[in-house]
Amino acid sequence: VVEKKDSAAINQSIVNLLYRDRRAVPFEPEREINIRSLLFEPMSNAVSASLESRIRLVISQYEPRVRIISLQVVPYPNKNRYQVVLQYQISGTENTGELRHLFQRVG
User: Fold this and answer.
1) Is residue 54 within 8 Å of 60, Cβ to Cβ?
2) How many CB atoms lie under 10 A from the CB of residue 73?
3) Could you state, in chain order, the average pLDDT of each consecutive group of 10 residues for the chain (107 residues)?
4) Which of 62, 98, 102, 104 is deepest in the core (most CB within 10 A)?
């Protein structure tokens, strides 16, 4: 098995981790990040900080190919969404990557 280390594969893996919810992985509840529950909380800096903390934790535990350089979670209250901006270094290389992703309330 060859491990993919390009930015596109890593970005997709991180997005998959961020959308992991309850019962997504049977018998592995610790992989739950449960971002959806925070999206329905009133938007605040505290919720942004909680999102950032959860994202850092899940990436550090389940994405060994990267080292986080910077992570920002920016709330956009008028649009009911948060933008995640992640800059990372690919382990074992000098290469860096960036992920920009929007989390939005739906429903």
Assistant:
1) no
2) 21
3) 72 89 58 74 90 92 94 92 95 94 81
4) 62
Distance CA 34, CA 44 (A): 17
Both structure tokens of 64: 């060994």
pTM (predicted TM-score):
0.82
Amino acid at 79: K
Q: Which residues of 76-87 are buried (b: 16+ CB within 10 A; e: fewer)?
A: eeeeebbebebe
Contact indicator for 100, 83 with CB cutoff of 8 Å: yes
Distance CA 30, CA 23 (A): 10
Question: In Å, what is the CA distance from 84 to each residue of 3, 29, 34, 49, 87?
Answer: 25, 23, 15, 11, 10
